[in-house]
């Protein structure tokens, strides 16, 4: 399960960085490009803040916080070995998206955003959506499955089985 989690996180990082590479080359001079009419536009934005551009120019704080969250989730995946596909997928998406945006912050000093939905005005990127989906899945895991998995893990540790 560890290898799969790390592979998912790595895939998110690679996909994110490949997309951002092409976006940074072709989109800055193109303006807003209608990709799927009335649903999705592509628009190059250099985001120096976090969600919705809030807290601009606090780059090193974002780098520190992101690094701590990534390390914490990696620790849980590798050493705590939670036996839940839902948890591992959610953590992997958050890690991969976090690393993707962390690379931008370190390398450029900002995050490259380019996806704008017609019904959601902020411009985002693939990594942002991976983090959002991962966080939503993590909330579902914590609310509905955490106690169940904890009891199973406790029973296995104590040598009790059904």
Descriptive key words:
disordered C terminus; alpha+beta; 5 helices; 162 residues
Structural class by sheet pairing and helices: alpha+beta
Strand order of the largest sheet: 1-2-3-4
Roughly how much helix do the residues carry, as a percent range?
55-70%
Largest sheet: 4 strands, antiparallel
Tell me the β content. 5-15%
Ends distance = 23 Å
Per DSSP E runs of 2 or more residues, the count of β-strands stands at 4
Which radius of gyration do the C-alpha atoms yield? 18 Å
Mean pLDDT: 87
Tally the helices.
5
Q: H/E element string? A: HEEHHEEHH
Low-confidence stretches: 155-162
- Tell the overall outline: globular
Description:
The protein has 162 residues and is of the alpha+beta class. It is 63% helix and 15% strand. It has 5 helices and 4 strands, in the order αββααββαα. The protein has helices at residues 2-26, 59-80, 85-107, 126-144, 146-158, and strands spanning 33-36, 40-47, 111-117, 120-124. Strands 1-2-3-4 form a 4-stranded antiparallel sheet. Strand 3 (111-117) and strand 4 form a beta hairpin. Helix 1 (2-26) packs parallel to helix 3 (85-107), helix 2 (59-80) runs antiparallel to helix 3 and helix 3 (85-107) runs antiparallel to helix 4 (126-144). The relative contact order is 0.17. Residues 155-162 have low confidence and may be disordered.
């Amino acid at each position: 399960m560890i290898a799969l989690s790390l592979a998912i996180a790595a895939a998110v990082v690679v996909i994110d960085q490949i997309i951002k590479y092409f976006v940074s080359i072709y989109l800055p001079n193109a303006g807003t490009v209608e990709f799927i009419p009335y649903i999705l536009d592509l628009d190059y934005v250099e985001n120096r803040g976090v969600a919705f551009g809030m807290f601009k120019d606090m780059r090193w704080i974002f780098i520190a916080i992101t690094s701590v969250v990534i390390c914490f989730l990696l620790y849980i995946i590798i050493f705590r070995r939670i036996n839940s596909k839902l948890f591992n997928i959610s953590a992997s998406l958050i890690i991969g998206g976090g690393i993707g945006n962390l690379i931008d912050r370190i390398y450029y000093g900002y995050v490259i955003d380019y996806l704008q939905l017609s019904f959601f005005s902020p411009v985002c990127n693939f990594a942002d959506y991976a983090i959002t989906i991962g966080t939503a899945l993590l909330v579902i895991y914590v609310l509905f499955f955490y106690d169940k998995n904890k009891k199973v893990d406790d029973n296995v540790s104590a040598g009790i089985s059904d």
